[in-house]
Amino acid sequence: MEQSDRPIALIDCNNFYVSCERLFDVSLRGVPIIVLSNNDGCAVARSEEAKQFIKMGDPVFKIRDLIKRHGVVALSSNYTLYGDVSRRVTEVLHSYSPRLETYSIDESFVDLSGFGDRMEAHAARMRDAVRTETGIPTCVGIAPTKTLAKLANYAAKKNPLFSGVCNLMDQDVRDYVMRRIPIGEIWGVGSATEAKLKAQGINSAAELRDLPLALGRKIGTVVLERLVAELRGIPCIDFEDVPPQRKGMAVTRSAGTPMTTFDVLAQAITAHATRAAEKLRQHGLVAGTMTVFYHTNPHKPDRPRHSFSRSIRLRPMSNHTFDLVDAAVAAARRGWKGDPSGNGYGYTKAGIILDDLLAEADQPAMLFPPDRPRDARLTDALDAINDRFGKKTMVLAREGVSRTWATKADHRSPRYTTRISELPVIQL
DNA sequence: TCTGGGGTCCTAGGACCC
DNA sequence: TCTGGGGTCCTAGGACCC
Q: What is the DSSP code string of A351-392?
């Protein structure tokens, strides 16, 4: 297989969630900031200042001292804001290349073929435009494969010499950089693969690149073999400027208080199934398979543990709230192991996963389709009311109103809330 | 002395990503 | 006390079939 000479750019926003927060609050600039996950459970984004002493994914309760000592501002996440800023960034990028793949909320691959010698200048202009028009700082990596573009982007972020744009189309520059990048930083090398490779004495991106393909497959799977090829400049991961049909979707939540009665669990399952059906309808999809699961806290191995998961075929395929809720609660009941004596299990997480998704219009015709105009009108009314008056204006009675299962953010003790909000803020 | 072989489909679980 | 949520892809192994 041949090395590619077609340049792919990866443009990645710096500390995206943090940068979004700083757009609207100048007092956050220059101070260490972290953004917390949904439940205020762990740090999912860090400013440069915070990266010095807080690791990605650190649980908040373990870093509370560090937060206090360094005057870190800890913010709950605001996904609506990040989604909107992301859309604006993508809009700007689109004016710089017709061929673009939005890879995640803060990264896009851009096809730079046809720019010749001007590709670096073009990338720099693109970066300036995003900065000027949205306020978000970015870095760009350019290389012949996606994996190398990711690597280039990493170098652009780490080494100020690149001034935000690292071009690895040149073999010598690429080799220089790859000899200095540890394998753990490579896109597709997680902790398990990192450990296996290190055991074989492979520590740098350059060493992994030089691994024989067959050995790559032996140590890992075909995935690692492809990764080695990508590091050699042979593209194995397609450029997807048309987003493929999504295969599944999920609604899962941790419970603020462990769920010890079936009633409470059923309320949570009802809420998640309701939301899952809403998501399906929003995307114009129906699902053919639904999986219900719930489990106790896996971080507490000394307590009674139980994990339940069951998949159900939905026939006909459906996006009706009632179909999903009924099936989900019935399935959940079959796995229930709680007992009223007080020795029951405390379930800390529950969720609904939908698979075999299909556009509503492509649904196979049934010989005897169920006649349910009433259900359809009901869900239409439900969506209309919740659209107009806000989420959860109308819910199934079964979901209940106590929401004892809801996440900590909704059910946090007053003191805890106070402590988070009283974290010191340094004003410039 | 000694239980067929080969194909497909499905699912659970692992690994990885942001 | 307190550890996110939502995705994708791959593989091994069981069920089933002829």
A: EEEEEEEEEGGGPPPPSS----HHHHHHHHHHHHHHHHH-TT
Q: Which positions of strand B lie within 7 Å of protein CB atoms?
A: 11-18
The answer to whether A93 and A126 are in contact (CB under 8 A) is: yes
Res A383: pLDDT? 83
Does position A126 have pLDDT exceeding 70, yes or no?
A: yes
What's the CA–C1' distance between A27 and C5, in Å? 29
State pLDDT tens for residues A354-407.
Answer: 999 999 988 877 766 666 766 778 788 878 887 777 777 777 777 777 777 776
Q: Which of residues 253-292 of A touch strand C (CB under 7 A)?
A: 253-254, 279
Identify whether the C-beta of residue A271 lies closer than 8 Å to the C-beta of residue A404. Answer: no
Q: In angstroms, how far is C18 C1' from A247 CA? A: 33
A249 strand C contact, CB < 7 Å? yes
> Which nucleotide has its C1' atom closest to residue A105's CA?
B18
CA nearest to A61, candidates A408, A424, A427: A408
Q: How far is the CA of A223 from the C1' of B7 (A)?
A: 25
Whether pLDDT at A147 is above 50: yes
Protein CA at A351 to nucleotide C1' at C1, angstroms: 24
State yes or no: pLDDT of A1 exceeds 80: no
Residue whose tokens read 């970066």: A127
Q: Is A14 exposed, middle or buried (0-12, 13-18, 19+ CB in 10 A)?
A: middle
User: For residue A426, what are its two tokens?
Assistant: 């340094």
A31 token code pair: 């101070």
Give the catalytic positions of A in this structure. 107
